[in-house]
């Protein structure tokens, strides 16, 4: 009898066979079956087939340290469930894509997200953390445009920095305590440098301002389907590790509340539809980070439930805007408008996501957002309450009013011809939309999954009347000033200015110095420059610029390390 | 549907929510977490004013500080 099967490894090892399958239909079927297998595995785990919940599996002894690949408890299961369900819907959405290696990197990404969630020790957490960063990079690069390549480089720079900080923190922690177990750091907070470093590594992935620009910079540049995957795994696995490691830390409560408002204010200025949505990831993750920081049972439940619902509706929103990009080739408001005549189905599916994120009653955002906001009221934090409640006004404003008006209405005549996207894209959106409404009407299945027993009733007159008044009255200012929100052909600076401008200056400085040096050499002796030139040409010919080739190298490294770990499991 | 009917529905729902909230506050006295929860129609006011403030803050931030030409980083 098998002790346990890791759902993430189903996706990671399963992704290997995608390029090997020749028949297109078989390949598509296989691509959908992969997350279904992982889902079946999860159901078996929660039914107690491999031993009850909580339990530990796949503990490997490596030079005196216990690696634990499978820590199963309620918190890891709820995140795993939503990751797998989302991956299933996203795979349906991405079925028409013919780039095998993009599918491989997407599954590698989702699988390593699951790996993070089930990791019970800091080393395996770190390994999956890095695989997640690298595999998602290819979802950006496969777009193939110059700006996507540049944004991808900046993206991986941020994540490498975060990864190194995390690794440094882990090493100091292991050095001082002698244990690599991943448990709450709250008791030892402040006792050593390690916890600041670990927290920094975590909040870079959670996109907490001012360390968030990798997200809003890179997500709008990713491929249509790649961006959808990216909305789910990186930030939400960071929320998971924050809950696991730093629940109850007041600092992140404040960071989260500020973050919720920050994302909204910047989203209002954006001209690119997917960038606007990306800023709302920052804002929504703010609710979860804030919930983790409050640390009460209701706040943790709220943060977890919100992560669950957020993955569903944010993927739906990105799918909707991605579908517009797919059929029109445009995503900027200044180039869109009046599309309702051509793509009404996409509009209505998008709007289900928009109502969900705004927290309208009967949609899933309502049953999770009210919980987090109520948790802030219960611990008497008026400023946090105001920031969170105020951010939901802006969320409604941008996502349910500004974006749809600029894309589907605003012009009398459609600015560009379009037809509805392929049926599989609509199907993927439909599955998520159905889940959003189902959980909004009947939240019990979600509440049963949460880590603590839920003593919260979402549908009370206070909550329903409160949110309805809030959102309905916020419509008036929008309607008065609707013309000033038509989108402006501008970019909005963000905190990445502090990295990009000095970086540019540094490179310019180096270039100038080199040119001076070369000129000097040319005058004095011309052998050296010629040598350098020959050398650089040879070095350049090593890299072929073919993305699949790089991905194969990454994949090979991942596979070798995983196979070694698996052999370790078998030996144990 | 006509734009007029839509707006009629919208205005009447605004009124409806306000009246329901006032009725709720008259009939029901829960222990509030914050003092402003005692004010009937507080959320309506908050939504309305909050939205204006958000617009004001983001627009002025954008126009006076953050907005640049598209080729700024090139």
Notable features of this structure?
heterodimer; A: 572 residues; mainly alpha; 3 domains; two-stranded antiparallel sheet; 22 helices; 3 strands; B: 74 residues; 2 helices
In short:
Chain A has helices at 7-15, 24-46, 74-93, 100-118, 122-141, 146-177, 193-205, 213-218, 224-230, 233-246, 250-267, 273-294, 297-328, 344-358, 364-378, 382-408, 423-441, 444-449, 461-480, 497-524, 527-542, 547-571; strands at residues 55-62, 65-72, 491-492. With 572 residues, chain A is mainly α. Chain B has two helices and one strand.
Task: Describe the model.
The complex is a heterodimer of chains A (572) and B (74). Chain A has 572 residues and is mainly alpha-helical. Chain A has helices spanning 7-15, 24-46, 74-93, 100-118, 122-141, 146-177, 193-205, 213-218, 224-230, 233-246, 250-267, 273-294, 297-328, 344-358, 364-378, 382-408, 423-441, 444-449, 461-480, 497-524, 527-542, 547-571; strands at 55-62, 65-72, 491-492. In chain A, strand 1 (55-62) and strand 2 (65-72) form a beta hairpin. In chain A, helix 2 (24-46) packs antiparallel against helix 3, helix 3 runs antiparallel to helix 10 (233-246) and helix 4 (100-118) packs parallel to helix 10. The radius of gyration of chain A is 24 Å and the shape is globular. Chain B has helices at residues 3-27, 42-66; one strand at residues 67-68. The N and C termini of chain B lie far apart (47 Å). The model of chain B has no long low-confidence stretch (mean pLDDT 90). The A-B interface holds A 264-266, 268-269, 377-378, 380, 382, 385, 389-390, 393-394, 397, 461-462, 465-478, 481, 484, 488-494, 500, 504 and B 10, 13-14, 17-18, 20-21, 24, 28, 30, 33-34, 37, 41, 43-48, 50-52, 54-55, 57-59, 61-62, 65-70, 72-73. Strand 3 of chain A pairs antiparallel with strand 1 of chain B.
Helix content class of chain A: over 70%
N-to-C CA distance of chain A: 15 Å
- What proportion strand of chain A? under 5%
The largest sheet of chain A is: 2 strands, antiparallel
